Every structure is written in C-alpha cells, then in structure tokens.
Amino acid sequence: MIPRHAHAGFTLLELAVAMFIIALLLGSILVPLTTQVEQRQISDTQKAMEEIRDALLGFAATNGYLPCPDLQAGGIPNDGNEDVDAATGFCTTITGAGANALSAGNLPWSTLGLGNQDTWGNRFRYTVLETYARRAPATPFTLSTGGGLRVCDSAACTATGVLTSTAVAVVISHGNNGRSAINALTNAANVAATSTDELENADNDRDAVSRTRSNVSATEFDDIVIWLPKFTLNNRMVTAAKLP
C-alpha cells in the first residue's frame, strides 16, 4: 500500500516559497527589460536631437539665419511654424535686451521639416539668440555678432560649471517625466518640474542645465540638452558662402 502522505499536495509554506522564487525570477527579467526600453527611448531622442542640430545648420546655410521659435502661446501656437514679424524681421517674442536677448518656445518642427515630438510625446523646447534669427529688413548676423546662451552643469551656473557660454541655440527634451513640457497631443503644458535644475530648463532664459540623470525626488533630472555652438554655425555659414 502506498502511504497517504505520498499523494499530499504542497503545503502553504511550500507554495509561498515557490511564489517568492517565481517573483524573484520575474523581477530579474522585467527590471532589465524596463531599463532596456528606457535606454532605447533616450537613444532615439538623442538621435532625433542630432538631426535637429543638423537641420538648424542646414536652415541657416540656406537662409542666412536661424529660425525663430514656434510660440507656446499667442498667435498660432504649437503649429510647428516659426513665429516671426515679417515687417521687422525679428522673432515675434523677444526676452531681454542687448547681445544676450533671446527668443524661446517650441522647436519650429514644421519649418524645419522634422518630427513634432520626442520619444515621450512632448514638444522639444527651443531657445535661440535673437540676433541669429534676424532676417530682412533687419540685419542678419555676421562673424562679429556677439552674445551667447549658456549651458551649465547646475542651475547655479557657477564659473566652474559652465559647459558653454557661446551657444546660439539650445534644444531641450524634458525627458521621461515630461515635467514642464508641452504635450504634443493636447498642446497643453504638463505638470511643472519640481527640481531646481529642471525648472531652469523651463524658464525660457539664457541658461540651461545639462547633467547626469537622477531619480531622487529633490534632485530629479532626466532632461536631454543639445546646443549649437557659435563657431560651428559660423564655419557652416562660411562653407556655404553665406559669411562673411
């Protein structure tokens, strides 16, 4: 006769241990998969932003100036077309005065013939030194045009943390969290950023932050930032016989 205990099922303790092991195995599979998806999204957005930089250079080489931003409010906002005052040759909205005056809004994706959003479904933020976006009847920029946008490793933008102070244009993706970005589907602003460095990338001023990603709440940062150096633009313009 076969003993009765040979036919007994798993005990609750054995089932609990089995479920725990299964959960660990699933976790070890899903976490790397999530990381792979995130890295692919970052890589795809970085590639798109490299194409944006090339498109800005191509636009300038063809027209003799950089495009103005697509405004986030006023006029016809979020339509992908640059907003410029044809009567004056200046961008519709200008912040500040002097050599470092700028114009900020969305990337004019339609004007540049590009896609209209990053991997996470948000608009790219675009800031341009306004003297570099002037066109007739205003006087376009020259090799001696001054000023520059700054990109730093923190919002403090201390002397040792300045990555560049001679950028003529800066493009920002607000990353996976999308904080402070303009949603490409609704054209509405997402929830505002909470960390100091991400807030710096949303205030449309001369400074932007580019640094290592962080998931810590107080220092959260997943923005992706590229910039167009003044000398890179000037070299392209000279090659295209647009300057001097």
In short, what is this structure?
The protein is of the alpha+beta class and 244 residues long. It is built from four helices and eight strands.
Describe this structure in words.
With about 240 residues, the protein is α+β, with helices and mostly antiparallel strands. It has one domain (about 10-240). Helix content is about 30%, strand content about 15%. The strands form two sheets. Strands 3, 4, 5, 6, 7 and 8 form a six-stranded mixed beta sheet that branches. The protein has a two-stranded antiparallel ribbon with strand order 1-2. A hairpin with a 4-residue loop joins β1 (about 85) and β2 (about 90). α1 (about 10-65) packs across α4 (about 230-240). The longest helix is centred in the N-terminal third of the chain and has 52 residues, at about 10-65. The chain is elongated. The N and C termini lie far apart (about 100 Å). The relative contact order is 0.14. The model has no long low-confidence stretch (mean pLDDT about 90).
Topology readout:
Layout: H1 12-63, E1 84-85, E2 90-91, E3 102-106, H2 109-112, E4 125-129, E5 149-152, E6 162-173, H3 196-200, E7 207-209, E8 224-229, H4 230-239
Parallel strand pairs: 5-7
Antiparallel strand pairs: 1-2, 3-4, 4-6, 5-6, 6-8
Helix pairs in contact: 1-4
How many domains make up the coordinates? 1
- Beta strand count: 8
Global outline: elongated
**Number of helix segments?**
4
Structure characteristics:
244 residues, alpha+beta, 6-stranded mixed sheet
